[in-house]
Amino acid sequence: MSESSDQKVIDAAPTTHAKLAAWVQEVAELTKPDHVYWVDGTQEENDRLTAELVEAGTLKKLTDPSFPNSFAAFSDPKDVARVEERTFICSAEEKDAGFTNNWEDPVKMKSMLNGVFDGAMRGRTMYVIPFVMGPLDAEQPQYGVEITDSAYVVASMRIMARIGNDVLRKMEATDEFFVPALHSVGAPLEQGQEDVAWPCNEEKWIVHFPEERSIWSYGSGYGGNALLGKKCYALRIASVMARDEGWLAEHMLILKLTSPEGKSYNIAGAFPSACGKTNLALLEPTIEGWKAETLGDDINWMRIGKDGELRGVNPEYGLFGVAPGTGWSNNPNAMNAITKGNSIFTNVALTDEGGVWWEGMTDETPAHLTDWLGESWTPDSGRKAAHPNSRFCTPIDQVDMLSQEYYSPDGVEIHAILFGGRRKTTIPLVTQSRSWAHGIFMGSTLSSETTAAASGAVGVVRRDPMAMLPFIGYNAGDYLKHWDSIESKANPERLPKIFLVNWFRRNSEGGFSWPGFGDNSRVLKWAIERIEGKAEAVETPIGFVPTGDSIDLTGLDMTPADVEETVAIDKDEWAAELTSIEEWYAKFGDALPDSLRAELDGLKERLEA
Ligand code: GTP
Ligand code: SPV
Ligand code: MN
């Protein structure tokens, strides 16, 4: 490699934002790309980049007219999900990262990363993507700039966030702060070396510096590892901003439901990865007269409004949804949005007609497919055609049921919060909390079986506070204190009511004891009627559960006795649960808020009574 090709840095950045120009220059000098390209966000640019990606073999253009202007990508088989064990929170002090995060001294980490990123973009183009999380006309737009050497990331970020020239112009007019988010796939090309379809590196680093609000990601091109506006910024970094500024950055869907009487309620739901957020956000109610509208499917930034109400905003611009299990029969709203086109699919299967397919998309399985690994596939191949964490990436404005309020920079008032996990046993279909503090207790002890959304074992029960375990950018004890403090900052009359849900409980035959999906509207109806003081409930040691006949079963092949079974509380299961919660809380030590310790004592007393 010649000396001069190391010197290919930009001479004039097309921005008056001095800090941005300086950062781009600094990164170019470190990573040594062949070119630096400023992303403008236009359709022409996207057409050009996707054509280049097709040429490079990263994307396949779908030729089935059911998927217009859409592409499929296939990752390296070892780069298919978030990598929690390679994710770091490098706060100045270790105690500020807490026991739920990997930590390394920021000075040491920076110096190590400077080595790793040195020359990392050789032979590649370095793309500069100005973006904003949430509306650009927000009172305080939340800017970021991602630098990446992956055009696939550029095309995906264009779907997932508001990017490009408008953002850059507004950001530089006010010389605004932005979150610098540096990403490299970690696969420099020597002169003449041929590229692969999905460049990445065995060595992966997903690193956050919370005090300076910056992100460094290396080695992966996949989802939350690489689209840095999403989990890295909008949850890990934003949760730190939220702690410091008195708001909440949460892993939640937002759904608006309107009753037959015309009363509207906005419901936020925190479920761990691959536990039903996108599906609930696109709910098709199965009960007469109820209308659902989508506000968000993954992230909810909540601030306290003028009247002390909690207001939620979805900072994203697209859906990055789990493909398997999303189908015409159980989620027509998602399928309609996806088939409008303009989507990027990753690690799904290809049909012989040049479309995509995944398990659960259609009732009938195609006779022949090309699976996500590129192998010929038939229904008796004995393996999945799509990877379990395969994804569709689709603009949110293609969702027909999108609420107009999605565009409101002030967001919507949140009336109810659901915490939910994937549990075969123990946790009832729905439980209303006894109070705000008890609701925080439910959130803090939320548990779920692990899924394919992160690398590692699947199906292991773990505690996942507020579904934020992999995303809390600081000490989890401080995070719970922050949640606890919301009660005194907000108007107590306007605080959302809190419910714990579990769509995944099994019956004695091993099947799901609740039909889920569109029928979850029946549970939401009960929750709303609880808020309105109308629905009946049974007070149990763990909270209020529906009576058998308080859930609307019209048109469903279920009886009130079946409902009672889905909300039954088993003494032995709860004795084991209590022990497990005590072990979980012990990990917090002194950092656990007193109110939660009191809630645990209360639960114990009630269970033992
Ligand atoms: P991330 O995008 O990874 O954060 O996941 P998510 O929380 O958005 O989960 P999603 O809605 O994509 O659902 C994940 C999986 O759970 C899919 O395979 C769904 O088919 C399945 N699922 C979602 N809702 C339900 C439900 O109500 N009942 C059952 N049985 N399965 C569900
Ligand atoms: C999740 O894992 O919660 C996702 C997918 O939504 S990713 O963007 O990869 O984090
Ligand atoms: Mn989702």
From TrEMBL:
- The entry marks the following residues as binding Mn(2+), namely K231, H251, D298
Catalytic residues identified in the record: C275
The entry's cellular-component GO terms read:
cytosol
Cofactor binding comment, as recorded = Binds 1 Mn(2+) ion per subunit.
Required cofactor names: Mn(2+)
Superkingdom of origin organism: Bacteria
UniProt similarity note: Belongs to the phosphoenolpyruvate carboxykinase [GTP] family.
Protein name according to UniProt:
Phosphoenolpyruvate carboxykinase [GTP]
Organism, by scientific name, is: Paeniglutamicibacter gangotriensis Lz1y
